[in-house]
UniProtKB/TrEMBL annotation:
Domain LUD residues, every copy: 71-299
Domain 4Fe-4S ferredoxin-type residues, every copy: 315-385
Every Lactate utilization protein B C-terminal domain range: 404-473
UniProt xrefs under Pfam families: Fer4_8, LUD_dom, LutB_C
Designated name of the protein: LutB/LldF family L-lactate oxidation iron-sulfur protein
Keyword Nucleotidyltransferase attached: no
Keyword Isomerase in record: no
Length: 484
């Protein structure tokens, strides 16, 4: 089983360590550059791309505006289709529901479709505590699991690994988890994929229970949708006797028609493909075809908190394409582990604080600052989430969450400087007086009070003359010494 993100350091600490890893930076630059180029090519083919983005954002937003109604409709249609619907307020409830279903069927192992939400709730670890082995079947997830590693990307969890490292993981770890890797295994991608396929096939054939998430859940028809590129998901969704799907409540889509723009936006934005090789849909139980017992766990886990945030709620439109990660200059240099969460990159920097709440812990509070605010993430987001604006709002929320207590030593000088600036900027005469002491103030700050600031920024030197003094001396630039 893989480790967890519990106890991870704050982003600045983790990022500094990641920047020292030259192999990691090389792996990330190569992978994200390749994905960006593929995306740009297929997006460029669609003349009405911006209209498509607006349509996709509209579908997701319409679901969020009346989420309770659509969820009730989803429960109704799923139940009519023969599925059993469960509601989970948090991770503990969801894990308990899944574990009870698996144990009731006497299963000691399950096969899993790649799922961010099951990683979010720590389902694998919860099942392991009950003596149940949860096997990841997505190739990249399998690499992470066998390597006792942590995912670092939404689409490609093992993006931080190169193929030589993957070969070593397969040779060293596959045998303990099932069918071993061939002794003559090379690091050719096709050979590595074939070894994984052989290893997983026996797990697919003997599994009684499959576990999935869902990319979308259609309220109108009671249909869950999973898109993927390898076919492993379809094996998990069709072969086991029992299927359990854990679905975040924000994944609901009101109508079947609403899938149209989303299924055109997602593959181009994620894998750089015109359509996903495998799009699986299922609506409850079909006698004699596929799983004969279907459970759907609808998960909150902080989503209603995010929904209540008028600015931040747009993060719930996210369709987990990872386009924002692939264009982010910060992510490309530090990777996903530095974010200390299942959801890394720009979307993780806003989604985690929204789900957990500002002030919940220092690691989460550090995430809204893990950005240069360059805006590239918004430009590529297929559902037009204004991530930079939400980041700024979340930074304010973090500050507000700590206003009630005494500022820490790291924040004391910054808070004092901001109070001084508020006084000076409130009156032009005060500002003019303060400008006379700029050189002295910067000298004092540089020596005594600015170390938290200057550890990541340059403190500028004082100008030889203030603008106000220059203006007065040159008569607004018209006298000698001023610009014409």
């Amino acid at each position: 089983m893989t480790g967890t993100f519990v106890g991870m350091p704050t982003f600045p600490v983790a990022a500094r360590a990641a920047l020292a890893n030259s192999q990691l930076r090389h792996n990330l630059a190569h992978a994200t550059g390749t994905i960006r180029a593929k995306r740009a090519r297929v997006v460029g083919e669609v003349e009405e791309w911006e209209q498509l983005r607006l349509a996709g954002a509209g579908v997701k937003e319409s679901a969020l505006v009346d989420l309770a109604t659509h969820l009730e409709r989803l429960e109704e249609t799923l139940t009519a289709n023969g599925a059993t619907v469960h509601w989970a307020n948090d991770a503990a409830e969801a894990n308990a529901i899944v574990a009870s279903i698996v144990k009731r069927h006497g299963a000691e192992e399950v096969v899993k479709v790649k799922s961010m939400v099951t990683q979010e709730i720590g389902l694998n670890e919860a099942l392991a505590a009950e003596g149940i082995a949860a096997w990841e079947t997505d190739l990249a997830e399998l690499i992470v699991q066998l390597g006792d590693d942590l995912p670092s990307h939404i689409l490609v969890p093992a993006i931080h690994r190169n193929r030589a490292e993957i070969r070593e993981i397969f040779l060293a770890r596959m045998a303990a988890a099932g069918r071993p890797a061939p002794a003559d295994l090379t690091d050719e991608p096709a050979v590595l994929a074939a070894a994984a396929r052989t290893h997983l096939r026996e797990k697919f054939l003997r599994a009684k229970v499959g576990i999935s998430g869902a990319n979308f859940a259609v309220a109108e028809t009671g249909t869950l949708v999973v898109v993927e590129s390898e076919g492993n998901g379809r094996m998990c969704l069709t072969l086991p006797e029992v299927l359990v799907s854990v679905v975040g409540i924000e994944k609901v889509v009101p109508t079947w028609e609403g899938l149209d723009p989303l299924l055109r936006l997602l593959p181009r934005s994620s894998t750089g493909e015109r359509m996903n090789p495998y799009t699986s849909t299922w609506s409850g139980v079909v006698p004699g075809d596929g799983p004969q017992e279907v459970h759907v766990v609808l998960l909150d886990n902080g989503r209603t908190n995010a929904l209540a945030d008028e600015v931040g709620r747009q993060a719930l439109r996210c369709i987990r394409c990872s386009a924002c990660l692939n264009v982010c200059p910060v992510y490309e240099r530090v990777g996903g582990h530095a974010y200390g969460s299942v959801y890394p990159g720009p979307i993780g920097a806003i989604l985690n604080p929204l789900l957990k709440g500002a002030g919940s812990d220092p690691q989460t509070d550090s995430l809204p600052y893990a950005s240069s605010l360059c805006g590239a993430c918004f430009e590529v987001c297929p559902v037009r989430i204004d991530i930079p604006t939400v980041l700024v709002e979340q930074r304010a929320a973090v500050v507000d969450a700590h206003r009630g207590g005494r500022p820490s030593a790291d924040h004391f000088w910054e808070a004092l400087a901001m109070k001084g600036a508020a006084v000076a900027l409130s009156d032009s005469r005060k500002l003019g007086l303060g400008e006379r002491f700029t050189r002295l103030g910067l000298g004092v700050a540089r020596r005594f009070g600015a170390s938290p600031w200057t550890s990541a920024r340059d403190l500028p030197a004082a100008p030889p003359e203030s603008f106000r003094a220059w203006w007065k001396r040159t008569d607004g630039g018209r006298s000698p010494g001023g610009r014409p």
